[in-house]
Write a structure and sequence with these properties.
mainly beta; Thrombin, subunit H; five-stranded antiparallel sheet; 0% helix; 45% strand; globular
Length: 77
Amino acid sequence: MSRPADSYRLNPRKLLLSKWTAARPVNREKHFLVTRVFRDELEVVREVELQAVLTQRTERLPWQALQDAQRWLMGWR
């Protein structure tokens, strides 16, 4: 089975300090950095904290949300 063209495969163990670009920036917040990775009691990655480079604002979301290419692009563009 193939993956949809608008998503990509990520290794959740390698997300810390990874760089992301918002596909549709809001309030000029375009570039983000994963500053924290949240794991459950079995050490399974559940969520990440993204920090906007411009404003330092943070948001917490399920790591799988980063696979949505309609919202997030890998790297800084």
